[in-house]
């Protein structure tokens, strides 16, 4: 199994630009999670989907952030417009069913907003 | 406030020495408990988890953890550390009745030869 795939691995952009992060979960997994990791705040859950439906987006920091899961094998996290404080590593994880199942993490996307 | 606490930000141990990483939680009901490891530039990998039953849990890479309800703790242990164990370790919980994984701040392990 290829595991959770994220792209790009690194993204450098300028303030105000739109950023789209992509995730392909493990085939057959029904839950997908987006996390953000920073030195100051550690690992934070941004949003999670179950069967392609957003279940909890209370961790999404503000309206500039949006996430979609158009099908079981693809999800995007979009930031528009981006700001320097959005610089972080963004992880996608998937689990077989519920969040209590083991979550398998992707390698992350390191985002730098200048 | 409900939280997951890893009191040690950094720990340094000698190769071959034993290791214990501490984790405490403050949730009323017994949560589901996890330990993850993150190597530099990598995603997180599950070491072990506890849902119920035997309070001593065995994981991968020779790690184990013990759930102590009376102390609200889930400490990670390894009897003999290898240089390749140098990484950051995260304790995480799904609070009882909840559905989200909450992570501690992490403990960075350094291994000296």
Description:
The complex is a heterodimer of chains A (114) and B (113). Chain A has no helices and eleven strands. With 114 residues, chain A is mainly beta. In chain A, the strands form two sheets. In chain A, strands 2, 4, 5, 6, 9, 10 and 11 form a seven-stranded mixed beta sheet that branches. Chain A has a four-stranded antiparallel beta sheet with strand order 1-3-8-7, with no helix packed on it. In chain A, a hairpin with an 8-residue loop joins strand 9 (88-95) and strand 10 (104-105). Chain A starts with a strand and ends with a strand. Chain B is 0% helix and 50% strand. In chain B, the strands form three sheets. In chain B, strands 2, 5, 6, 10, 11 and 12 form a six-stranded mixed beta sheet that branches. A four-stranded antiparallel beta sheet of chain B has the order 3-9-8-7, with no helix packed on it. In chain B, a hairpin with a 7-residue loop joins strand 10 (87-94) and strand 11 (102-103). The radius of gyration of chain B is 13 Å and the shape is globular. The A-B interface holds A 4, 33, 42-43, 45, 48, 55-56, 91, 93, 98-100, 102-108 and B 32, 36, 41-46, 49, 51, 90, 94, 99-106.
Q: Structural class of the helix and strand makeup of chain A? A: mainly beta
Classify the secondary structure makeup of chain B into a structural class.
mainly beta
* Estimated share of beta-strand residues of chain B: over 45%
Helix content of chain B: under 10%
Strand content of chain A: over 45%
Number of helices of chain A: 0
Task: Average the pLDDT over all residues of chain A and give the rounded result.
Answer: 93
Task: Please outline the major beta sheet of chain B.
Answer: 6 strands, mixed
Work out the radius of gyration of chain A. Answer: 13 Å
Could you give a short account of the major beta sheet of chain A? 7 strands, mixed
